[in-house]
Design goal:
mainly beta; 4-stranded antiparallel beta sheet; 10 strands; 14% helix; DUF1036
Length: 148
């Protein structure tokens, strides 16, 4: 048996007392272009692996304050053990705060917000069972956006 390049290796091993012989091709016997392609794929895999690893997903309930004022917020929701209310967070202008860390367990959340002497009161947010949710507070009434 002849391989390209003429590099072959004879291997002998015993399988249940029976002598087995095999002829294998060494890696040097591969044509140069195949070795070059294998090297390129190895290098590409080395550089692309970090991009293929999934980044951890952040599942939170966040409030972003796009106003020019400090806003105080509280949140309420129904949990397995009953109603839960949490707060008080002071969210500075142009920043965000995470009110609930981790995967959201309820569908409906009730957000209370106030700044100076203005109160938004409680507003219901139907998350549709999304794992995360973000509420964007703004200066203009009726434009409080929400995103999942």
């Amino acid at each position: 048996m002849t391989f390209l390049g003429g590099h072959a290796k004879k291997c002998v091993h015993y399988n249940h007392g029976i002598r087995m012989e095999a002829v294998t091709q060494s890696s040097l016997a591969r044509p140069r272009h195949i070795r070059h392609l294998a090297r390129l794929f190895s290098i590409a895999a080395l550089f692309l692996t970090p991009f293929m690893i999934a980044a951890p997903a952040y599942a939170d309930f966040r409030v972003c304050n796009s106003t020019q004022n400090l806003v105080g917020v509280a949140i309420g929701y129904r949990a397995q053990e009953g109603w839960v209310s949490e707060g008080w967070w002071q969210v500075p202008a142009s920043t965000c705060a995470t009110l609930i860390e981790g995967e959201l367990q309820s569908r409906y959340y009730y957000l209370y917000a106030e700044r100076s002497f203005q109160r938004m009161g409680f507003k219901e947010y139907d998350t549709g069972r999304q794992g995360s949710w973000m509420v964007q507070l703004s200066d203009t009434p009726g434009t409080q956006g929400n995103q999942n």
